[in-house]
TrEMBL record:
It comes from the Eukaryota. It holds the Pfam family GST_C_2. Residues 1-79 form the GST N-terminal domain. GO terms for cellular component: cytoplasm. GO terms for molecular function: transferase activity. CDD domains: GST_C_6. PROSITE patterns: GST_CTER, GST_NTER. This is Glutathione S-transferase domain-containing protein. Keywords: Transferase.
């Protein structure tokens, strides 16, 4: 059986969990804290990051967007996450680029705030905030008043957009994105009714080791 190394707050891992659930692909969930010395990530990924999909032969697939590309290639028939139309496929991947980039900025902001007061860089935090805010603006424009971002069907773009918004609610709950973009809030709440979303709601984690 496939195994997925995941973490409870991870928006990247949540994308994979959602897609595996939507495609009804069985897998064993292995929940870790990648920042703790006990993590198995270095055994499977030279970059020491999760999510990691461990295949039945023990080999591994890592980097969430590549894991999703792998799953789509190997399990094409089951609930395709990408359109047959090349432009729609490319647009969905562009939405994932922005959503993942927002997640990256969230992680960088999160760890910058772990530094001692005097060591934190306001300029660096402001730069990450601009990326997060810019990403929300783009997502809200792409969503408009639609139920799904691409081609009128649930797919990769919705998985990525839903994962980053859910992550902000855990990692940066004071962010006013729901107020700023009520259409995006409505869209996310509707996505949240899917079983694949209900079963993967992010939860914070307590990191034991000193990271920065
Ligand atoms: N681009 C990667 C990012 C993955 C990532 O940064 N994962 C974090 C965990 S979480 O932020 O998603 O919870 C990690 O393993 N970090 C450990 C490290 O960077 O050494 C992806 O899309 O898979």
């Amino acid at each position: 059986m496939l195994k997925l190394i995941s973490a409870t707050p991870s928006p990247y891992a949540r994308k994979v969990r959602i897609v595996l659930a939507e495609k009804e692909i069985p897998f064993e969930l292995i929940t870790e804290i990648p920042w703790d010395s006990t993590t198995a990530t270095p055994q499977h990924d030279p970059l020491e990051k999760l999510p990691i999909l461990i295949l039945e032969d023990g080999s591994s697939v890592y980097e969430s967007h590549y894991i999703l590309e792998y799953i789509e290639a190997k399990f094409p028939g089951k609930m395709p996450m990408l359109s047959e139309d090349v432009d729609e496929r490319l647009f969905a991947k562009k939405v994932e680029v922005v959503a993942d980039g927002m997640c990256d900025a969230l992680v960088l902001r999160f760890f910058e705030k772990q530094r001692a007061e005097g060591a934190q860089s306001p300029e660096w935090q402001a730069r990450q905030m601009r990326k997060i805010d810019g990403g929300f603006k783009a997502l809200a424009e792409w969503v408009g008043d639609k139920e799904f971002i691409v081609g009128g069907k649930f797919g990769l773009a919705d998985v990525a957009a839903g994962s980053v918004c859910g992550c902000v609610d855990v990692r940066f709950s004071e962010h006013a994105w729901r107020t700023n973009y009520p259409n995006l809030a409505r869209y996310i709440d509707k996505l949240g009714e899917r079983k694949s979303f209900k079963d993967t709601v992010p939860v914070g984690q307590n990191i034991k080791n000193k990271i920065v």
